[in-house]
Amino acid sequence: MNGIERFDTIVIGGGQAGLVAGYYLQKQGRDFVILDAYQHPGEAWRKRWDSLRLFTPARYCALPGMPFPGGGTHYPTKDEMADYLEAYAKHFALPIRNGIRVAKLTREDGRFQITASTGERLESENVIVATGAHNDPRVPALARELDPGIVQLHSSEYRNPSQLREGGVLIVGAGNSGADIGLEVAETHPTCVSGPPTGHVPFDIDTWVSRNIAIRVVRFVGMHVLTLRTPMGRKAQKKAVASGAMLVRVKPKWILRAGAERVGRTVGADGGRPVLDDGRVLDVTNVIWCTGFRHDLSWIDLPIFGEDGEILHRRGVVESVPGLYFVGLVFQFAMASDVLVGIARDVRYVARHLSARDRMSPEPVAA
Fold first, then answer.
1. φ and ψ of 111, to 5 deg
2. What is the pLDDT of residues 16-56, one digit of tens each?
3. Residue 129 and residue 325 in contact, taking contact as beta carbons nearer than 8 Å
4. In which band, very low, low, confident or very high, does the pLDDT at 185 lie, cut at 50, 70 and 90?
5. Among 167, 215, 288, 320, which residue carries the largest CB count within 10 Å?
6. What are phi and psi of 78, to 5 degrees?
7. Domain boundary among 232, 266, 289
8. Could you give the count of Cα atoms lying within 13 Å of 18 in the half-sphere of its Cβ?
């Protein structure tokens, strides 16, 4: 495409955070576009493992302006979530351009310049980055030292046990994805789950009491107690960044009951086999890396990063670069910031700040 397209606001990322941003921008009557690397809204959910279900009942999975279909206490599958996001984008006729990955974001003469991998160039007064923190799989360097005959999958590539060879499976990472996948794989393969112990929600979320009462308590704590405004919340943020989230659905004892073995950290390789921190060498034919994701923002050529590489922002507002915003970040304001129940509040805050910027108002933005 020749020339440069101009918009008031460009949203980068068309997942749930990007769609909610589009909803509020539309209500403000803005000229905007949503750029998304995937071919369809909700596609990121479809690419997760087949048995994945959400941790929150349907009543808490709805985005602003459109209820989630089905029973309110039903835990949606990943495909039901993808269907909902696709329907949401269609219902509000959000201007999404799919299959466009942003290659570079810069700023010249007070306007943001975006170069897409397709060669398209766009320009805007404001940019909302909604790419999330779960798009770039992180696999440790020792993966290259393992025998080529070992099947290696990141959790983002795993779909079901049919992808695995006969023989043992090592799950590296004992967080929610590692626990969920480990519990499933243990039904068909000898399985070891590697990683330090993690905390867990002390109740079974699939019971009637949990669906109707306990989840409400957890939601309230995640939204209103564990926030950056409280000492407890600030402490929780540091812990979440350092060690990841606690287990929600699967309990550590369930993994053992299924026949899987809990082992220490995977620290290296010996003869092409994974080695644990106690020196034990595992003779496995499969390794599933449940080691999380990198938040790769190397395409942003702007002075917004601290010495530790983290984004310098206040509730998603980048004060050093007016007009630049983030939504969907881990613990952006609260423990629930990067999950469905918390995204809308953070997006509303950003949208209000954007309106206040239009008015050049020096007044602080209400929460």
1. -125, 145
2. 999 999 999 999 999 999 999 999 999 999 999 999 999 88
3. yes
4. very high
5. 288
6. -65, -35
7. 289
8. 31
From 154, 157, 159, 155, select the one nearest 79 (Cα to Cα): 159
Contact 358, 81 (CB under 8 A): no
The length of the chain is 367
- Measure Cα distances from 207 to 71, 169, 212, 222, 291 in Å: 15, 30, 9, 20, 29
Domain-terminating residue out of 289, 305, 333 = 289
CA separation for the pair 6, 122 (Å, rounded): 6
69 and 168 housed in the same domain = no
**Domain range holding 220?**
138-289
pLDDT tens-place string over residues 317-357: 999 999 999 999 988 999 888 888 899 999 999 999 999 88
* CB 361, CB 343: distance < 8 Å: no
Are 176 and 259 in a shared domain? yes
CATH number of the structural domain spanning residue 315: 3.50.50.60
Q: DSSP secondary-structure letter at 320?
A: T
